[in-house]
Amino acid sequence: MLFNDTYKTIAAPAEGIFRDRGSKFIAYAFPVRSEEEARGKINEVRAMHAKARHFCTALRLSPDRSVFRINDDGEPSGTGGRPILNALLSADVTNVLIVVVRYFGGTLLGVPGLINAYRTAAVEALATATIQERTVNDVYRLAFGYLEMNIVMRLVKDENIKVLAQDFDNNCTMDVEVRQTATNRLLDKVQKIDGLRAEYMYSY
User: Fold this and answer.
1) Entry pTM
2) Residue-wise over 173-189: b if at least 16 C-beta within 10 A, else e?
């Protein structure tokens, strides 16, 4: 099988809503790259809805879709986080967090009702989101002396590499993003330049 170096995610935050017997389920979908970023988004939603009863979440991370986290936040086990995750799996998206906020309407929905409500709210949010395909990219930090600057700049230009951050002092660093399928070629060229080192940072 060929290495698949693309994945689907959402381009921007999106919202969906579902109502059932007085209870209101508001779903927020966010593009995220880390668990830390996801925690920040969950806290933002909690602050926006201080009077809500539950904040069930599902998170799917990494281009190979291998990392996921779910939280039922006080709902019966398996009725909140898992249905939201199933919506993410059905849409085949990753690097996405969905938080579903529940305002209790006074009527118990039962396990099937809860599962349906949390899943439907999540599906609604994803339906309004713009899904986009992205390449799997590696981020490297290039470290070099000031004298190597021109050679490094030429390498970056020739290879059409995206520069994320740079710091030019006596000891220079440059954070660059390269499509994973082109990483080996870049590293081969880096090795041939005296005084240039590449340190792997992360992939997304």
Assistant:
1) 0.80
2) ebbbbbbeebbeebeee
Beta bridge partners of 107: none
At 76, phi and psi to the nearest 5?
-55, 140
Domains and CATH numbers, the chain: 6-134 (3.30.230.30), 137-203 (3.30.70.260)
Chain length of the chain: 204
Segment 8-50, tens digit of pLDDT: 999 999 999 999 999 999 999 999 989 999 999 999 999 999 9
Q: Which residue has the tokens 């080996």?
A: 184
Dist. CA 105–CA 107, nearest whole Å: 6
Residue with tokens 């395909």: 133
In b/e form, how buried is each residue of 105-119, taking b as 16+ CB within 10 angstroms? eeeebeeeebbbbbb
Token code pair at residue 191: 């090795």
Compute the 3-state secondary structure of the chain and give helix, strand, coil in percent, each to the nearest 5.
Answer: 35, 40, 25
Chain-centre distance for alpha carbon 28: 14
